[in-house]
Design goal:
The chain has helices at about 10-50, 60-70, 85-95, 120-125, 145-155, 210-225, 240-250, 295-305, 400-410, 410-425, 435-445, 455-470, 475-490, 495-500, 500-525, 530-540, 545-550, and strands spanning about 80, 95-100, 100-105, 110-115, 130-135, 140, 160-165, 175-180, 180-185, 190-195, 200, 230, 255-260, 270-275, 285-290, 310-315, 320-330, 335-345, 375, 380-385, 395. With about 550 residues, it is an alpha+beta fold. It has five domains: about 35-70, no CATH class; about 95-185, Roll (Pdz3 Domain); about 190-395, Alpha-Beta Complex (2-enoyl-CoA Hydratase, Chain A, domain 1), CATH 3.90.226; about 400-455 and about 490-540, no CATH class; about 455-490. The chain has a six-stranded mixed β-sheet, sandwiched between helices. The termini are far apart. The relative contact order is 0.08.
Length: about 550
């Protein structure tokens, strides 16, 4: 019996197993050698460049460039965070920072207050949208970019900062001293009732306490009579995984799977379940999504879809199915590295770009439709992986006319809103404010001596036609016809200002509303012209249609 273990098949198996083990051991040693060899090459190269390059080289800049280029070959989410950028990273994950409480940006080479946050130092000191910051603590902002300005404004809570400010329409500047505070940017910038029984909440980020903010908002909406809910995740880039899990837990039963993460390190594989008692598992939910809804937004949207807990309305989501972890490095720096992929309850990963197989030019392709796999929701609806989340009800994304985009890009709508606010002490409530025809024509008149131009898609196509005609030597014979067509196709600013009046008016109204009612008022006013929101309201009016959309 003992000898029977050593018959020929077993000996072959044993030999194969030993060869496999030795091969793996060799591969591991070989890999370690390659790592050490390349580190040695990199270190000696770095020394030689610093020593012999013809001009002086900043070693910090050179190394940062090398690290960034190396990590860029992996994916956009694996990043090196040097010590001097740690605070910016913490702000991204916590939503908190020490500062004056205002969004500051550059418009036409001027550093301006773009949006003061209500109740914080900038707002309390009377700083308004459009005010220009000339100096911070005596340092001129001429030529400084947004990051440099942000670093000057931020600091420990309680410390003082001196600003030299020039208000819109004034010739002289004044000095304002502010005490920095701990600023907490709300994850839920707005929530309110949008119909008799429909509550709406906008979730803009997933920083710490996002789930608590959502919970409090939903509870308040229900007290106001909400029996249906619209959760707006459009433009939400994601954030903390645990906040996404806790938000899902508000609407699904305890112990249900929310998301699983899979890594090449086996012990890091985890399945996250709903751990708490839910807030409401019955209230009808519509989730609004678009192409900028990513990561944690897609986890929440995917869970709602996979459990047939809500209807997704809008456009296909971004498709980020990757998880990042922060790892400590020497000298207080850190590495944010992609460590896993996440999978939602149906079993699908919605990652749209295949970073592991780049083309020769370094570009990344989407997973082809032929490789996408079908999965099923709880009720048996067919859904697919590999390309973000497909909404249950698609609404075509609105595209701005070229003239509207040009007015925004050249900050002319922003500038005129400052002019309007300077001339009007107050306006009606945000949701009721409308520009009259006469007021819009004043704006058109004001634009007459302003420099802005744009190219329509038709004009771009015509240029391509001209170039192709010249290339193929047809141009001379059809030149007259082409010139006549060009005259008809060329845009007319005056005409376009009337053709796209309603679109331009809407953007101008939103910008003006921000001067009086800030971010919350701007969000409220934007709902009037919101195609996705209107589609959600129409669906929630028809309970039978809503329920049918959740069936196979």
């Amino acid at each position: 019996m003992f000898k029977s273990f050593y018959h020929r098949p077993f000996r072959l198996f044993l030999l194969g197993f030993l060869l496999l083990v030795s091969s793996l051991a060799f591969t591991y040693k070989d890999r370690l050698f390659e790592i050490q060899k390349n580190l040695d090459i990199f270190m000696t190269l770095f020394k030689e460049v610093n020593m012999f390059y013809v001009d002086e080289v900043n070693p910090n800049t050179l190394m940062k460039t090398g690290i960034d280029a190396m990590l860029a070959s992996l994916d956009p989410y694996t990043n090196y965070i040097p010590e001097d950028q740690i605070e910016d990273y913490r702000t991204m994950t916590t939503g908190q920072y020490g500062g004056i409480g205002a969004l500051v940006g550059t418009r036409n080479n001027k550093t301006l207050i773009i949006m003061p946050y209500e109740g914080y130092p900038a707002h309390s000191a009377g700083l308004k949208i459009g005010d220009e910051i000339l100096k911070i603590d005596g340092i001129s902002l001429a030529g400084k970019n947004n990051d440099q300005v942000s670093r000057l404004l931020k600091g420990q809570a309680g410390t003082k900062v001196r600003l030299e400010v020039r208000s819109f329409g004034e010739e002289t500047s004044r000095e304002v001293e502010l005490a920095r505070e701990n600023i907490k940017v709300d994850n839920v910038p707005y929530h309110g009732m949008v119909a008799n029984d429909v509550g709406y909440l906008k979730l803009s980020e997933f920083t710490s306490n996002a789930s608590l903010e959502v919970k409090n908002a939903v509870e308040e909406l229900k007290k106001q009579g909400a029996k249906k809910l619209i959760l707006d995740l459009r433009g939400n880039p994601g954030g903390l995984l645990n906040e996404a899990i806790n938000i899902c837990n508000l609407f699904i039963n305890r112990d249900l799977e929310v998301v699983s993460t899979r890594s090449k390190i086996g012990e890091w594989n985890r399945t996250h379940k709903a751990l708490n008692s839910p807030l409401d598992t019955e209230i009808p939910i519509v989730v609004l999504v678009n192409g900028r809804s990513a990561s944690a937004s897609e986890i929440v949207s995917g869970v709602m879809q996979d459990y047939d807990r809500g209807v997704l309305i809008g456009q296909r989501t971004f498709g980020k199915g990757l998880v990042q972890t922060t790892r400590p490095l020497s000298y207080n720096s850190q590495l944010k590295v992609t460590t896993a992929k996440y999978y939602i309850p149906s079993g699908r990963c919605i990652q749209a770009l295949d970073y592991s197989h780049r083309k020769e030019d370094g570009s990344v392709e989407k997973f082809p439709d032929s490789l996408r796999t079908a999965y099923k929701t709880k009720n048996g609806r067919v859904v697919y992986d590999g390309a973000g989340l497909e909404p249950d009800l698609s609404v075509e994304a609105s595209k701005l006319a070229p003239i509207t985009q040009s007015l925004l890009n050249n900050h002319l709508i922003f500038e005129y809103a400052n002019l309007y606010a300077d001339a009007h002490a107050q306006i009606p409530p945000a949701k009721d404010f409308r520009l009259s025809e006469a007021e819009y024509q004043k704006f058109v008149q004001w634009l007459q001596n302003k420099d802005f131009d744009y190219t329509t898609q038709v004009e771009k196509t015509f240029r391509e036609l001209e170039e192709k005609a010249k290339e193929e030597k047809y141009y001379a014979s059809i030149q007259a016809q082409l010139q006549a067509l060009k005259a008809k196709l060329s845009h007319n600013k005056v005409q376009d200002l009337q053709t796209f009046k309603e679109e331009i008016k809407t953007k101008l109204e939103l910008e003006i509303v921000a001067r009086y009612y800030f971010e919350e008022g701007q969000t409220l006013a934007s709902l009037n012209q919101d195609a996705e929101l209107q589609a959600a309201l129409e669906l929630l009016k028809d309970v039978a249609r809503y329920q049918k959309m959740l069936l196979p």
